[in-house]
Design a protein that fits this description.
This protein is mainly α. It has 5 helices and 4 strands; from the N terminus they run ββαααββαα.
């Protein structure tokens, strides 16, 4: 099987299973606006809301809460990313070295959700 989809050169896979793993990892949760890739639909939706939604941009300018928790099912929304980070560490036991900017940058070329270094 071959993958001819961007953003990479054509790739060949010996089995459908390997192709499917590749497709799920690299093509399923990609932002159509900036082409960044995300680990789940939830992260993709957060990215779109925080980076490409003009209504949320206006709400943010007014100081309204637009930064939703990364944990699906948690209804906490914060006014600033540092407050969301603190909530996720305190309430959901996220490690302090988790890359909380993943919602902006995506996961392209990464093997971990933790900050490199």
């Amino acid at each position: 099987m071959k993958c001819l989809l961007p953003p990479h050169e054509p790739l060949s896979f010996p089995t459908y299973t390997e192709y499917d793993v590749h497709y799920q990892k690299h093509h399923t949760n990609r932002c159509l606006e900036c082409r960044r890739n995300f680990p789940s639909t939830h992260y993709l939706n957060l990215h779109i809301a925080e980076n490409h939604d003009p209504i949320n941009e206006a709400r943010k300018a007014k100081g309204e809460k637009i930064y939703a928790c990364f944990v699906e099912g948690c209804d906490r929304v914060c006014s600033e990313p540092p407050k969301r980070r603190r909530h996720m560490i305190d309430k959901h036991q996220f490690p302090t070295f988790y890359d909380f900017f993943i919602v902006n940058t995506g996961i392209e070329g990464r093997n971990s959700m933790l900050r490199p270094g």
